[in-house]
Design brief:
The chain is α/β, with parallel strands linked by helices. The protein contains five helices and four strands; from the N terminus they run E-H-E-H-E-H-E-H-H. Helix 1 packs across helix 5. The protein starts with a strand and ends in a 6-residue tail after the last helix. Pfam families: PTS_IIB.
């Protein structure tokens, strides 16, 4: 099973997004783990994930997050603004899948 960590400033909006991604994955019979946390705890989870998805409002942190993730081979991507704003779990799942391939 692949694991995704979503981060936003406090973990609140990403919590709703994580739930919607889990629902979208379940509807498609895709086994995936999705957690949402604050950006301040990324280092606590980085060893256990395959993809780090970042809220678009935190795009200024991209390089710092890539520096944290790179030693673990974890991809870091900014969630598309429209999908994030609409809490569109299907769209974010579609966006994430290519980054989860082995």
């Amino acid at each position: 099973m692949k694991n995704i960590l979503l981060v936003c400033g406090t973990g609140a909006s990403s919590g709703f997004m994580a739930k919607n991604i889990r629902q979208a994955a379940k509807a498609r019979n895709i086994e995936i783990g999705v957690k949402a946390r604050s950006d301040s705890v990324v280092e606590d989870y980085i060893e256990d994930i395959d993809l780090l998805l970042v809220g678009p409002h935190l795009s200024y942190m991209l390089h710092d997050l890539e520096d944290i993730a790179e030693p673990y081979g974890v991809a870091v991507q900014i969630i598309p603004k429209d999908a994030y704003g609409e809490l569109d779990g299907d769209a974010v799942l579609d966006f994430a899948i290519p980054f989860l391939k082995d």
